[in-house]
Amino acid sequence: MKSENYFINHKSQWCPGCGNFPILSALKKALAKLNIKNENAVVVSGIGCSGKIPHYLKTYGFEGVHGRVLPVATGVKLSNNDLTVIGCAGDGDGYGIGGNHLIHAMRRNIDITYIVHNNQIYGLTTGQVSPTTSLNFKSKTTPFGNIENPLNPLSIALSSGATFVSRGFSGRLDHLVNLIVKGIKHKGFSLIDVFQPCVSFNYLNTYDWFEKRIYDLQKTKHNTNDLFAAHKKTLEENKLPIGILYQIKKPTYDSLLPQIKKQSLVKQNISKVNINPLLKELE
Fold first, then answer.
1. What is the CB neighbour count within 10 angstroms for residue 267?
2. Contact, 202 vs 150, CB < 8 A?
3. Alpha helices in the chain (DSSP H)
4. How far is CA 103 from the centre of its chain?
5. Domain ranges of the chain
6. For the whole prediction, is pTM greater than 0.85?
7. How far does CA 113 lie from the centroid of its chain?
8. So what CATH class is 3-281?
9. Residue 186 contacts by C-beta under 8 Å, 6 or more apart in sequence?
10. Cα gap 86→266, rounded to integer Å
11. Confidence of residue 272 (pLDDT cuts 50, 70, 90)
């Protein structure tokens, strides 16, 4: 299948040069590589620049409210666990208001791929600090410099029980495509944190800034089964690893539910189910 099969003629609302464009392209290419039919993929997003991504993909899509990507994506997956479910959120959407949902989705090991467009700023609302904004960063809301230490999402993911923890970069398209492919193929919760430069409001974390610091983790001797080694990698600051930090096999949430273990909920015949006894209990 070709990535053009996922193209939809909808005018983009992103700024020219935005790091969201490569993420969209990488997602299309990944779906094509996996030969996933349009009707078998669902992309769920929240509020923010990343929230527009379902508009630009010829798949099923749902743009929810701020921070609620994962509850919706979980509902979709449990309703029809045959679907490929992908969540897309920004760092504010995913790590701010949606942070609590993220922790519980990871510990449950929901079979979802979660791509976080991490531009380290609130881009849609024109440049306020987000949970991942660098210390001392000057913005509209922090004119004297950000005094809050940035969140470390990869470290939180490892502590919360995520079974696939990774990082990509918008400036490395081929690498990002392969990362998304591996994330989707992984059975369990896959976190793909993507460095996504905001060319309009983040003057610090630019494409050049990342190019000088990132390195491919899979070109080293890193053991992706080693939890402690993965934790150490999340703490690196001068050099930033991209690739898979951690991956293990564990039963997924939907595979343990007896109600949908053998057959998806939407495919079950409920025509003979009598709900009258339940209704009488509510009288």
1. 9
2. no
3. 20-33, 69-79, 91-92, 99-108, 153-160, 173-185, 207-211, 227-234, 253-256, 276-281
4. 13
5. 3-281
6. yes
7. 6
8. alpha beta
9. 113, 163, 164, 247
10. 19
11. confident
